[in-house]
Amino acid sequence: MILICQNLRNNLQSPNEYVRGATLRFLCRLTEPELLEPLVPSVLANLEHRHQFVRRHAISAVSAIYKLPQGDQLIPDAPELVERALATEQDAAARRNAFCMLLASAQDRAVAYLLSNADRVAEWPDLLQMAAVDLICKVCRAKGRADKGRYIKIIISLLSAPSSAVVYECAGALVSLSSAPTAVRAAANTYCQLLSSQSDNNVKLIILDRLHELRASHREVMVDVVMDVLRALGSPNVDVRKKVLDLVLDLLTPRNVEEVVLYLKKEVVKTQAAEVEKGSEYRQMLVQAIHSCAKKYPEVAASVVHLLMDFLGDPNVASAYDVALFVREIIETSPKLRASIIQRLIDTFYQIRASRVCICALWILGEYSLSLSEVESAISTIKQCVGDLPLFTVSEEGEATDSSKPSQPVVNSVTVSSRRPAVLADGTYATQSAATETAISAPAAALGSLASSQNLRSLILSGDFFLAAAVAGDLTKLVVRLEEVQSSKVEVNKARTGALLILVSILQLGQSSYLPQPIDNDSHDRIVLCVRSLCNPCDDVRKIWLQSCRQSFVNMLAEKQFRETEEMKAKAQISHAQPDDLIDFYHLKSRKGMSQLELEDAVQDDLKAATGQFTKDADDTNKLNRILQLTGFSDPVYAEAFVTVHHYDIVLDVTVINRTKETLQNLCLELATMGDLKLVDRPQNYTLAPESSKQIRANIKVSSTETGVIFGNIVYETSNVMERSVVVLNDIHIDIMDYISPATCGEVAFRNMWAEFEWENKVAVNTVIQDEKEFLNHIIKSTNMKCLTPPSALDGECGFLAANLYAKSVFGEDALVNISIEKQADGKLSGYIRIRSKTQGIALSLGDKITLKQKGGSS
User: Fold this and answer.
1) What are the Coatomer beta subunit appendage platform domain coordinates in residue numbering (predicted)?
2) What's the mean per-residue pLDDT of the chain?
3) Is residue 554 one of the residues assigned to a domain?
4) In a domain, 799, yes or no
């Protein structure tokens, strides 16, 4: 031991600066006072060494020694020595080490140094500034609100620091320490500046998360910086753009909505340029954002609807369909715009390329063409897009050909079918190809027919009879309305005859051998119904076509608005203070010597106290539910764990109790995991006295949403037995419910994800519950998911129920569930629950959870 101390002392006095510094770093790891005591004079001598590398590590060594249990005896005047060194030091890292030592061991000295240099903090190196921010946060939280204003002024002065890291930390500290509008506004402006100046997308996403947190607690301040946030749309990253749009839509007010929509319109125009990265996907996001703006504030719809209608012919089907849905809703909610929207739709209808968009546009034309000129123009447009009749002719050789084309069109696209069937709104699978858009565009592109005005003809000739049925229904509706607005019976009969000719031609096409697949029964029955309605019109039929369809759509919009209003009311609920809580009255306080910022801060703190935002009651019963017994009561070592699940990691607080009369040596908690769980810390050995206890903490990282298992042993030695003893622990099962939460998504997005996701888990219904809705509510409660199917669609008693559920994990994974159940004659429920996700883990784990919980009762 003497030789070791002598060797270390020689190294501390070495002429080589690196040897001295490395030895001082090594001393930071030693914990034996007997070894350190003879070295203390040499360590202190290095505080005044000429080289900064040595001084830097000498301060670290003094700090490490002083933190030891007997450290105040080894170096009783360590804080004073370090404070003296800090006053004369010039090296940034050495100053930071000295300041951190004072912060940890002599906080009053650190505070005195900070306040004495408050005017020069902005000139400090960034390492020291970061340490100063840490000190301010620590002091303000400990001292309360006594002299918080002095420290907040220092933080505000650091918001103009050249280091982005310092600025970011200052903004976060400012928000956590003060609720004054001036302070929050300064933090929000700082975040916006960082958002525009930083090029790293990960940094942008983190800053946007901070802005989202600000919006939740200080929305009125965030409203003022909404245009600064919008500038981040210049980033080419889709995730950044999506977060920006989500944040901006939450900050809309009547005062800024026009400015926001104008900016979004400019962005939509920019997406037409070919060089824009992921332009079609970005355009779809912008269309959805503008749609949300127009729903909240209908007065802005007039400024954007005509621009967006130019994109009804967008090659990106999802984007074009979003535009069509937007137009459909706006034309109902804004009667003043109907005439101009109908005229614009008639002018641009021939540009539409996608079947789904055509169907929506046809419904709009049939429902909202009210005047004589509009009805006649709509009928004329449809006839022009269908083209010359008949749709095909039979040549002398017996081969069917398109009557308007010199050669047979390519219809190979009809045979293209998706590997996965489409799911309808009621949850059943459809025979219609999920690759409808491919089937639409392929033959058209080959022939160039969609470049002409006969887009409906090309789509129908590709085998899309669902669209053909929509054309038939729309023509029928227009002719029925023409009877009301046209006084000339001759013109009405002429239009009816023309419509009947188109309908009969479509039926002939569907029953011919011209196409590989004949018309489906549903489309055939609908077209035949339209023929009968045109041939034998009556008042009841007229009422159904002209009134009932519109009323159903109005009811759907009203219900959707009602659901959104209810959700907003639920979110707006705030906690209130208890009747006996103390409230300070701002007007009765002394204002002497207080700055404007300090006054605002005091007001906001009082408001928080009044509204109960300071009180966060911990639910002790829930804590007790998370305690798991790991060993039996008769085992020599008793262990239980308290499991805390954060978003990305699990913390196990394990209490180990020695129930024997012997000292347990080298006691080690050995854990292993199964699934996407990973241990962070290596196990350590402990010595446990007789009948004493020890708290051991284990951190486990989580990388995906799936059910994981943690298992392990407690291994220890005793003085009597040389062999190691092992106690096997009970398994800890990590529940998937801790990682998923209810979420919402549109019907179109749900269908797209359902067709895209590869992993499906099909669970057969096996339950004692006999009521369909009760079973649905039980599954929703058990899986922590949200039902996307509106309540009106679940009304009534028909013995059958289909519903879609959706949830999102903390890792951003989507979980889709479709429930299709039917009540049998004996009263039991049968059917299937299908789960789809992008990853296998969440599909399997959710399936296991449903299988375990679906029977009902206490299971």
Assistant:
1) 723-850
2) 78
3) no
4) yes
Give the C-alpha separation, 613 to 610, whole Å.
8
* CA distances from residue 148 to 24, 138, 154, 586, 615 in whole angstroms, order as listed: 38, 11, 10, 17, 20
Residues 748 and 773 in one domain: yes
pLDDT at position 417 is 39
Question: Residue 444: pLDDT band by 50, 70, 90 thresholds?
Answer: very low
Overall average pLDDT of the 544-551 stretch:
80
- CATH number of residue 89's parent domain: 1.25.10.10
The last residue of one of the domains, among 734, 767, 783, is 734
pLDDT tens for 24-83 read: 888 888 888 888 888 888 888 888 888 888 888 888 888 888 888 777 788 888 888 888
**Chain segment 239-259, per-residue pLDDT in tens:** 888 888 888 888 888 888 888
- Element at 261 (helix H, strand E): helix 257-270
**Tokens matching residue 289:** 């954002």
**Cα(317)–Cα(340) distance, integer angstroms:** 24
Does the pTM exceed 0.85? no
Domain range for 812 is 738-854
pLDDT at 439: 35
Are 127 and 206 in the same domain?
A: yes
pLDDT value of position 459: 84
Residue 116 has pLDDT above 80, yes or no: yes
Q: Which tokens hold the place of 459?
A: 């789509």
DSSP reduced 3-state for 720: coil
Shared domain for 729 and 754, answered yes or no, is no
Same domain, 34 and 139: yes
What Rg, from alpha-carbon coordinates, does the chain have?
Answer: 36
Same domain, 181 and 76: yes
- 122 is a domain residue: yes
756 pLDDT exceeds 70? yes
138/213 same-domain check: yes
142 shares its domain with 51: yes
Q: What is the pLDDT of residue 656?
A: 92
Q: For the chain, how many structural domains are there in total?
A: 4
Distance CA 807, CA 743 (A): 5
Q: How many CA within 13 A on the CB side of residue 361?
A: 35
pLDDT-derived band at 398 (thresholds 50, 70, 90) equals very low
- Tell me the helices (H) and strands (E) count for the chain, helix number first: 37, 20
Q: Are 351 and 391 in contact (CB under 8 A)?
A: no
**CATH number, position 726:** 2.60.40.1480
- For residue 69, is it within any domain? yes
Determine which helix (DSSP H) or strand (DSSP E) holds 669, and give its type and residue range.
strand 664-674
Specify whether 30 is located in the same domain as 143.
Answer: yes
Residue 370 burial by Cβ neighbours in a 10 Å radius (0-12, 13-18, 19+): middle
**Alpha-helix residue ranges (DSSP H) falling in 536-649:** 539-543, 549-572, 596-611, 620-625
Mapped onto helix, strand or coil, the DSSP state of residue 372 is helix
**Backbone dihedral angles phi then psi of residue 826, each to the nearest 5 degrees:** -85, 5
- Which of 674, 754, 732, 740 minimizes the C-alpha distance to 705? 740
What does the DSSP assignment read for 632-654?
-TTSSEEEEEEEEE-SSEEEEEE
pLDDT in the model for residue 429: 62
CB atoms within 10 A of CB 196: 14
Q: Which of 734, 756, 784 is the last residue of a domain?
A: 734
pLDDT score for 705: 64
CA atoms within a 13 Å half-sphere pointing along the CA-CB vector of 15: 0
Q: At what angle do helices 52-67 and 92-105 cross, to 10 degrees?
A: 10
Rounded CA separation 8/36 (Å): 10
Strand partners, 808: 741, 814
pLDDT band at 583 (very low <50, low <70, confident <90, very high): low
